[in-house]
Task: inverse folding
């Protein structure tokens, strides 16, 4: 099944992006109707995070979100097999000069990358910067092989398994490569603390302040979004965080979640709401899912 799916993606990647987007729109609406368990996860997350919206408004947002996620999977073929020229044309990389300036200063860099739906187009960065990134091992080895292929096509990228933890990331940072760090998922109670995300206590690994402190690194955010109208994608660096980390890792982790929340509110349909972000609950609290 995976092999046929990959062949389908390979065939799709030859099509113009607006055509791929149209196919993703149709398939996304179909999946919204058929894949009931994940639809419920999305709706639960939106109910928790956007209580001010009506049920009808959350339903519309959930549908747009499933379409965005479906599109991101189908359009991944562009990153995996598209030419460098095409990827450069479709993916605008804005603010990369900030990374180059920090490297010239000899700074250690952690890039904070929230889980927006089009994360794979962030591989465009590899054409300009050799990075270190962390990946989760996949049960399907053929799919994992393609994921690794897509992330290592350009430059000399270094990939760490999540099992290597913070020590592996700090060791890799000392080679001078920026770390492409995705911190906003629920990895269970181990090593996590509870800090607010959209006003809900969320189990969050305080890895960002720990890594920044251990590696004496600066933190700079990278936001990756699809442009409106199937016009491509934008990967945009923000400004270096000041006074981070502090001596309070809980406050630092809460600051991180507050920043991600503010960015999500700008494009809520493009966040990865299919993830059970609030799966782990504080002792005594009922489960949401």
Result:
């Amino acid at each position: 099944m995976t092999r046929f799916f990959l062949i389908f993606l390979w065939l799709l990647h030859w099509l113009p992006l607006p055509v791929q987007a149209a196919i993703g729109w149709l398939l996304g609406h179909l999946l919204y109707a058929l894949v009931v368990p994940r639809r419920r996860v999305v709706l639960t997350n939106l109910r928790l995070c956007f209580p001010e919206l009506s049920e009808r408004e959350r339903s519309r947002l959930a549908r747009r979100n499933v379409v965005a996620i479906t599109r991101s999977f189908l359009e991944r073929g562009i990153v995996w097999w598209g030419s460098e020229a095409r990827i450069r044309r479709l993916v605008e990389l804005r603010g990369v000069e900030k990374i180059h300036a920090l490297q010239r200063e000899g700074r250690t860099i952690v890039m904070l990358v929230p889980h927006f739906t089009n994360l794979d187009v962030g591989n465009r960065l590899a054409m300009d910067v050799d990075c270190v990134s962390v990946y989760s091992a996949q049960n399907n080895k053929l799919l994992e092989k393609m994921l690794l292929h897509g992330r290592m096509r350009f430059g000399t990228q270094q990939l760490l398994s999540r099992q290597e933890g913070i020590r592996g990331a700090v060791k890799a940072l000392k080679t001078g490569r920026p770390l492409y760090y995705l911190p906003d998922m629920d990895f269970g109670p181990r090593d996590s603390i509870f800090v607010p995300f959209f006003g809900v206590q969320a189990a969050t690994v305080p890895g960002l302040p720990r890594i920044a402190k251990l590696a004496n690194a600066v933190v700079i955010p990278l936001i990756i979004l699809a442009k409106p109208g199937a016009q491509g994608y934008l990967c945009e660096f923000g400004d270096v965080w000041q006074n981070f980390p502090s001596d309070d890792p809980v406050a630092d982790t809460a600051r991180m979640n507050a920043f991600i929340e503010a960015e999500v509110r700008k494009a809520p349909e493009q966040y990865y709401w299919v993830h059970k972000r609030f799966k782990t609950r504080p002792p005594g609290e009922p489960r949401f899912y």
Q: What stands out?
A: Strands lie at 91-94, 108-112, 132-135, 158-161, 179-181, 193-197, 200-204, 217-226, 233-237. The domain at 2-270 is CATH 3.40.1130 (Glycerol-3-phosphate (1)-acyltransferase). The radius of gyration is 19 Å. The first helix runs from residue 2 to 12.
